[in-house]
Every structure is written in C-alpha cells, then in structure tokens.
Amino acid sequence: ELPWVEPYKIKMTEDIYISTREEREKWIEEAGFNLFNLTSEKVFVDLLTDSGTGAMSDKQWAEIMIGDESYAGSQSFLKLKKVVNEVLGLPYALPTHQGRAAENVLFSVLVKEGFVVPGNSHFDTTKGHIEFRKAHAVDCTIDEAFDIHDLHPFKGNIDVNKLEEVYKSHPKENIPFCLITVTCNTSGGQPVSMENIKAVKALSDKYGIPVYFDAARFAENAYFIKEREDAYKDKSIKEIVKEMFSYGEGFTMSAKKDGLVNIGGLLALRDENLYRTCGNFGIIYEGYLTYGGLAGRDLGALAQGLMESTEHTYLKARINQVEYLGNKLIEFGIPVQKPIGGHAVFVDALSFLPNVPREEYAAQTLAIELYKEAGIRGVEIGTLLADRDPETRLDRFPKLELLRLAIPRKTYSYNHMDYIAVALKNIYDRRNEIKSGLEIVWESPILRHFTVELKKS
Ligand code: F0G
C-alpha cells in the first residue's frame, strides 16, 4: 500500500528567519517572558494558534480576486449562503468578523443575567461573552477528558448526567441553550461523537432546551466521527457534517479554523424570527446582513474554504500531520494529552517539569524553554490563562497545566514536525535541571495571559 500524502502541492513559499539562541534569550527577556509580545520575525515555527494562520488554496485566492464588494446582496455572500444551506444544512447565515463576534450577536439575544449555559469546556471568548452578561458557563465535559492517559476516543463528549443535573437544578427559562463545542479545544482538540450529540439533543428536547454548536473545528470533528464511530465509517464528511448540524438550532463559527481563511466568522440559524432579531444586532455590531464586517472577497474565500475543508482527503492529511507530531513526542516519552487531538498537541507541563511548582507557572516555563531552545512559539493553557478567582484574587489552578502546540493548516512540513519534536526532546532530556519557573511582574485584571509581564523566579 502507498503512504498517505497531502492532496495538494505548494505554489508559494514564505521565508522564515532562523535566529540564534543568544538572540532568542535577549528577545524573550525584552518581551517580559510573554510569547504574545514577540514580533513574528523573532519566531521560527509559530504554533501559537491554528486560527487564521493557515494557507489558502489557489481556488480560494481566485475568490479573493473575484470578490463582489457590493454593500448589499454581494454575489460572494450568495456563494457563502449556498454552502451554509446546502452543505451545512442551515437556512440562515449571518457573516461576522470572527467567531467571538458571532457569539456576541447570538448571546446578545439569548443570554441574560443569571442564566446558565451548559456545555463541554467553553472556549475562553465564549465563556467571556457569557460571564460578561453575568451568566454562568457550566462545564459538563466527561471526566475522562481530564486524564491525559485515558484513551477514550471522544474526550470532547458531554456527560449527560452532569447535563441533566444542570437541567434539573435550574428553571427552564434560565437555560437559554446547551452549547456543544466541536472539537473541544480546551480539552485538547478532542472530538464529540455523533452518539453523544444525539444523546444531548434527546435529553435537551425532553427539557425543552435548544442545542447550539460552537463549530470552529466542525470538519475535524466530523473526520473523527468517520474514523472512530463504526456507524459512520462509510459516510462522507459532508453527510456527517449535515447530520451533526441537524441536531442543533444553529451554530457560531470562527471561520479562521475549518473555514480555511485568515479572518471571518459565521452565525447560522434555523429559525427565521431569531435570524431577524440577530440580524439587528449583526447590523449594529458587525455590518449589514450580507457582509457582517468582512470584505466580499473574504466571504468568497470562506465559501470555497468550507467546501475544501469538508473533503476527507484534505482532513486526513491535516490530522495525520498533527498525529505524526504527537506520536513522535510519545515515542520520546514526553507526556501529552492522548489520543492526539485534531488541531494541536497538548504537552502536560506538570509531569514534563516535575521540579517547577505550579505557583511558578510550569506550562509557561516550558513554553519559554521551547522558544529559547528552537524559536518555537506555543501557548500556555494553564494557570495564567485561567486568571484569578474573581472573589479571592488567588490564582485558579485548572485541572491540567498544558503547553499547546497548535498546527496551522497546510503551512508547515513534516520536517518542521521533526524539528519541533527534537527541540522538545532536548528539553525533556535536561528536565531535572529546570528547577524554577516564573513570577508575575504586571498583569491585567482579566484575560491576563495576553499582556502579562513575567520574570524568572
Ligand atoms: N470557539 C473556539 C472553540 C475557538 O477555539 C475560538 C478561537 C473561538 C471560538 C473564537 O473565535 O478567534 O475567531 O473570535 N480560538 C483561537 C485559538 C483563538 O487559538 O484557539 P475567534
């Protein structure tokens, strides 16, 4: 049998500067040991995010050239609407400038003070938009998700018992919807099974509560359903995607992931009245109904991107590359969240750096080590990100302290994956010598990880 290879070839390249260790040590100190403060030329392999950082296809670039910039009724919007209707199966589409903007529009209508929104580990901006409205996000993810060694094939699943507990303990009027994030970024890019989606839908129907999706990585989720759920092995990705969304009243989507574009978001809805109400918020926050904060060309590129990301050949190449990196790290004995997720490899910093106390931000310490070692920029998904408890102002220690290595789509080669793996192995080999971490010099009261300034402990 022949090996699996990418179903595309490369038409354009972008140079990246190979820095020295001395340069990086100086730069990261100047950056206050915060990787967000680094300008991009100081980064060799950028794994900060898989959001908006991927390569587009020639057909997407063609859409950029033929984009229709009409304020109302743009042809590029009609292309996007057609894909939302025919491929994703929802009748109404409102473009937005990003995923969080779609959240803002939908939640402006549905989320009120005192409400609770259950789901599987809501993404930070999602939680932010819920908490900003003085409502609560309740995490109902299955417990297996928090044990990195548990090989559960769908660690993004919602625990239906936890969900029912939420449904029983709050009046129906205070639960605007249940939100299923596919894949679940926070738990490691872990998928949600169709069986679980159906179970959540059935339970939610019983209590009269609508289901919505956070669809940032919906295509990657569909790929895992096809690979891991027997009943779906002969279905196409497009069939799986359509069935998945058929169980919801709509979705918010950051199109910067599986939309395969550099900017964009989408709110898709089933109900006409809700669409009209959301449309009003869309107009004041984002722009007119048929562009929503995007250029016409962006809408065209997104329509094409959604067609391409729902192809099995593309997804297999994409997810194989992430898995390849994960398996290399496992081979080297490096502790990672298993199974490997769709868009990123998550390294368990607490067991990687056993001598660095949690109070000294072990995952951030590892992120800085990796940058100094090889110019690789990952991101901390740990105590810095978790912010302080709003009441006690003490650090909140999340269940896991992770370093996320997010892989941009169609951007880096397998050689880059080997490079990343060896860089981490070099640090792993000298892990016992790393005995101290970092302390905070300055931080903002919320979302501190973006701007925090640190020094060596
Ligand atoms: N939902 C999920 C699951 C996400 O991962 C993100 C963004 C958003 C919503 C918000 O979308 O950025 O377009 O406004 N995640 C990026 C990341 C930033 O790095 O994981 P946005």
TrEMBL record:
KW Glycoprotein (keyword) present: no
Gene3D superfamilies: Aspartate Aminotransferase, domain 1, Type I PLP-dependent aspartate aminotransferase-like (Major domain)
Entry-linked NCBIfam families: PRK13238.1 (NF009709)
Gene Ontology MF, one: carbon-carbon lyase activity
Protein name as catalogued: Tryptophanase
A Pfam family it matches: Beta_elim_lyase
Entries under InterPro entries matching the protein: ArAA_b-elim_lyase/Thr_aldolase, Beta-eliminating_lyase, PyrdxlP-dep_Trfase, PyrdxlP-dep_Trfase_major, PyrdxlP-dep_Trfase_small
Record family assignment: Belongs to the beta-eliminating lyase family.
Domain of life (superkingdom): Bacteria
Essential cofactor(s): pyridoxal 5'-phosphate
Keyword Lyase: yes
Protein keywords: Lyase, Pyridoxal phosphate
Biological processes annotated in GO: aromatic amino acid metabolic process
Aromatic amino acid beta-eliminating lyase/threonine aldolase domain: residues covered: 46-421
Coiled coil: none
Sites of N6-(pyridoxal phosphate)lysine modification: K257
